[in-house]
Amino acid sequence: MPLGTLDRTPPPFFKQGPSALTRLTLAAALSLLLMVADTRFALTGPLRAAAAVVLQPLERVLLAPIDAAASLAGYFQGLDAARQAERQARQTLAVQAERSLRLEQIQAENTRLRALLGLRERLSVRAAAAEVLYDAADPYSRKVIIDRGQAQGVALGAPVIDEAGVVGQVTRVYPLTAEVTLLNDKDAAIPVLNVRTEQRGAAFGHPSDGGMELRFMAGNADVQPGDLLQTSGMDGIYPPGLPVARVLRVDRRADSAFAKIVLRPLARLDSARHVLVLEPVGAQMPLRPEEHAQASASPAPSSPGSAPGRAGRGRRP
User: Fold this and answer.
1) Distance CA 170, CA 143 (A)
2) What is the pTM for the complete model shown?
3) In which element (H, E) is residue 31 found?
């Protein structure tokens, strides 16, 4: 090959352009020129806007994972906050429901106590308020224990009432408590008067059928369902006029001379909490002449208790 045809230019690796200092100077000058032009003539504004429009889809694609992660974290945070708020709301609701229930119970109890106070003012006999502590241990009887006893002047046989009517009678007295036999006890009995017909009778406890039963009434007796029965006051224990029961059902049987009359007690026998203990009517009656003479002749008692000659009748000094 002839020597004149040989390419004597150096390879690209050995080619040398402008020096680094020259290129730095040109770049700096171009940068200053562009900055001055942009400041003076706003030449790069349209370029920025065009680049932003072109790059916006790419930015949205690149930001999508970040936005998804942030949304997912916010979802779980919101879910936890909602669950915590629900738990707090349930706790608050439970507390408010308990307070509302206690408020209703207190209001009902206040209503019953006010009714008892009003009834106490209308009574002609002495009365003392008492609270029912618990039911008696005997499962075959209907008896309760109250928080008043001999120390508070409770007498044996004293009537016990609530705001609705007669509850029962004191059948056993202890120093600080007393046992009350309810009207629906199988051994309970009380003389009653039919308000509509003014016919007297005797009501007995009958736990298995309505609570009470009016016994020994003729089959053709004028007794109708709904009749109100009150205490007659003939026994010297219960004051007259206290509500006792209403006639629930009358069964006139042809094979018996007596009618089966089922009564519904008016008092809250199974749920009474506050009651009034009355002094027996017989304890407030004046002494008979022979008892008065005996009391005058006997010496004065050394300790407070029943008056001489009337101890058996439960009289208090």
Assistant:
1) 9
2) 0.57
3) helix 20-41
